[in-house]
């Protein structure tokens, strides 16, 4: 007579599957812990340099809004200024030595980019305060990018 009940037999494959799933999860989480910060860093580099190049070439949905807010600057220079600023942030993220500079540049950049939300809400919202326009969404995404830059800068090991 066996000490096992007949109910134990179907549980073995399930137990093995759960063990296998846990090993996969552990391997994935180890990969995430070891590489996520690097992946985030290079994703941010790509986004900032790419958007910066688009901005310097005049393909930016909010440069006109920023030019209206920063009326003291010649309108043609706003694209170059914003695009160069984005490229500088991206390039500063490439090196661990300049990552903290990237955080400062990104914080200042986002402060400038957010100005139209306050100064021109009619241009950045279809229904204030919860319905951003296309330009408003474009501006708000910079908060997410700033959060990513701050995460990379804040988790640097000395």
From TrEMBL:
Transmembrane feature ranges: 39-63, 69-94, 101-118, 138-156
Keyword set, alphabetical order: Membrane, Transmembrane, Transmembrane helix
The protein's name: DoxX family protein
Species assigned in the record: Halalkalicoccus tibetensis
Lineage, top ranks: Archaea, Methanobacteriati, Methanobacteriota, Stenosarchaea group, Halobacteria
């Amino acid at each position: 007579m066996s000490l096992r009940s007949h109910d134990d037999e179907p549980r073995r494959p399930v137990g093995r599957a759960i063990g296998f799933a846990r090993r996969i999860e552990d391997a994935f989480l180890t990969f995430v812990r070891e590489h996520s910060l690097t992946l985030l860093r290079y994703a941010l580099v790509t986004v900032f340099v790419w958007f910066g190049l688009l901005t310097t070439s005049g393909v930016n949905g909010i440069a006109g809004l920023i030019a209206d807010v920063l009326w003291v600057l010649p309108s043609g220079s706003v694209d170059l200024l914003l695009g160069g600023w984005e490229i500088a942030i991206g390039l500063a993220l490439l090196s661990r030595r300049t990552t903290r500079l990237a955080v400062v540049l990104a914080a200042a950049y986002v402060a400038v980019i957010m100005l139209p939300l306050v100064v021109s809400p009619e241009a950045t919202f279809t229904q204030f305060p919860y319905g951003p326009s296309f330009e408003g969404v474009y501006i708000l995404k910079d908060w997410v990018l700033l959060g990513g830059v701050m995460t990379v800068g804040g988790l640097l090991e000395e």
